[in-house]
């Protein structure tokens, strides 16, 4: 626990949940309209909690940082797009293919065209969250959690818990679905395989935060363009996502990481933080 406090993990968790949960709880309690006006602004700022917390801690402690690992590659870019888009697309194609074109056209028109779709799905989730989850939290936890499944479990649980207040905020998709519905439970469960896929993309394939942003954006955009999947559709979507994670996990086992994990160095809150020895996957 001392090491987690020293590296900023505890501070990150407190800031991330505080920035999001407090406004969301207020919005839920007051039944504020989040589609326009002040409600929309408050909701958007709260939804950016992970990235805001990461930036704030980077500015507060600029001496502590993670070694850059990003390498521009077509492989992780393609896998990020496919990994994010496959599960919602497959569920829609299998269960309701006739409604895909109509629903996609309606969604595109509602946000002012394809540029609006790209902008909305990129900002809402990928940019507002991934600098926190994959840019700040993941590499710091990686220094003490060397097994990918253990790291995935912790980040997935944190990510899922962070979304819980949204089930009580009127106007959100989560609120419409309900926490204990198939859709709600499958959404929470999906953060675990998504976290595993993101770990492979960001670290094993060295895609870094850009890969996580691309994965998250593909998942959001495809989910918005496809007809809503509830009940059996939500279960099918989760099953496809788990299958994708299992296939990538099998590949990972056959091709273990040839290089060391990210290293953390700089000055901690209580003095010098010596560089941690790098560990293999």
What is this structure, in a nutshell?
It is built from twelve helices and three strands, in the order ααααβααααααααββ. It has helices spanning 2-7, 9-30, 37-47, 49-60, 74-95, 100-110, 114-142, 148-163, 173-177, 182-204, 208-225, 232-254, and strands at residues 65-66, 264-268, 271-273. Helix 2 runs antiparallel to helix 3 and helix 5 (74-95) packs antiparallel against helix 10.
**Side-by-side strand order of the widest sheet:** 1-2-3
What does the radius of gyration come to? 19 Å
General form: globular
Tally the helices.
12
The string of secondary-structure elements, in order, is HHHHEHHHHHHHHEE
Strand content: under 5%
Q: Tell me about the biggest sheet?
A: 3 strands, antiparallel
Mean pLDDT: 87
Runs in which pLDDT lies below 50 for 5 or more consecutive residues are: 263-281
Distance between the termini: 22 Å
Using DSSP, what is the number of strands? 3
What is the helix fraction of residues, given as a range?
A: over 70%
Q: Which structural class best describes the helix and strand composition?
A: mainly alpha
